[in-house]
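Handout, page 2. Input:
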Amino acid sequence: MIGIVDMMGGFGNQLFQYGIGMFLKEQGLKVYIYASDKESENRKIVIPESDFGFNKIEKRHLFFINLLKNRTFLKEYYEIVNDSVLSGPEQVVNIKKSSKKVISFNGFWQKKSFVDEYFDNIKKIILDNKDIKASNTTKKEGSTMVHVRRTDYKNNKEILKSNYYKNSLEYCKKNIKNFNYSIFTDDYDWVKSQKIFKDAVNINVPKNQLNYRNEVLSTFGKMLSFENYVIANSTFSWWAARISSTENSKVLYPNPFFKDESFDAFYGNWTPIER
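Output:
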């Protein structure tokens, strides 16, 4: 059976999709990675699928893939499964019993059950990437990464208000020795306008928007150099915290993570802060 994992969204989402790809591969499926040619440049695959051991769908195959996806008379051979139907690894058993030759896995798969078993492999691939340039130096005591994501959330209900950051910083001041923090954001002007961020050591903003891939990997590498994390409702900073934090780290996340979507990827030593 062939499994096609559809790539959707930015870098953080792609890592979750690689996670389910690893799971499917272990279940005996021949896994291919599909990225629509209609995706914008800012949504292209950031780390090549070959780094994760997956097969690439060549351009010459795209015609047939699109034919499968859009022709109902071929559904005898092909079906699409999304993450609302396949909610956990145990359900893959039923998928493997399918008579279909090709199954497309279309979703974000934001569940730790699809990631944790393969986390060490994912982490190694990321840290070995020469463009990430993760710091190997000892993390400074109390150093904390604060992620503020706003620009693509301004037109929906997901934007985090200043109260989340105010409460998070107050928690950190009380619970982190030698607390100091740097901000990573896509909205410099808003951050600078907020008095709650007056003590930030640095405010990091994207510098090379014309080269999305390099900017993403460079920024992500910098985010890995901290001891503690105040993440946004973003899989980008979720992955930074997941990869770089230790059992002694403080990781704070907004609760609920998303207002309109479920997100099941938190850990017992992470602290929810009401948004």
